[in-house]
Predict the 3D structure of the following.
Amino acid sequence: MEVNIITPEYALPVREGYTISITIRTFRGHKYVEVHLFRPDWKTAREADSYDWTKLLGDPIDRDLPSNPQGSRAVVLESFTLEERDRVIEYMKNRYVSRLTAINSRPLQFPVPLGLTPLSEIPEDGDLGFIRFEEIHNYTLPFPVHGLYILSQHEKSTEQPEGRQRDLAKDTL
């Protein structure tokens, strides 16, 4: 398994700001599925009230469209603190060593553009969904972690019979 951690070039202006993605060897009938991890409980981040959002958020992605800053604020709050990032990476390395091909982490670039959609607000459908790691048996992290995947972005796999894929996806990755 490859572990790629990009450290920030400067001190981040807030505690949050670290993103993590994992690549699962086979998942729900597809191979090398990239899953973007995030904190689903970001709404409880009390320190966010004290952040100077005028310095944390930048120009809109599209100047022709109105941009609500709430989505971009949520993107920051869904990211991990340095301590959480390290715990999540260690957990994934130890728990899913044979299932993952890569773990990647990088800091957000500040200022974060306006107009972003937080991962937690993307609606699930047959192609796009969430792994709720805290619902998987023997989860040991003290905070919930969710992962967003989009199956259509990945090649289909013929590695396992269809029934086995569903069990693995639901129960253990």
Notes: Residues 162-169 have pLDDT under 50 and may be disordered. The radius of gyration is 17 Å. Strands lie at 2-5, 18-27, 30-38, 57-60, 100-107, 112-114, 128-132, 146-150. The longest helix spans residues 82-95.
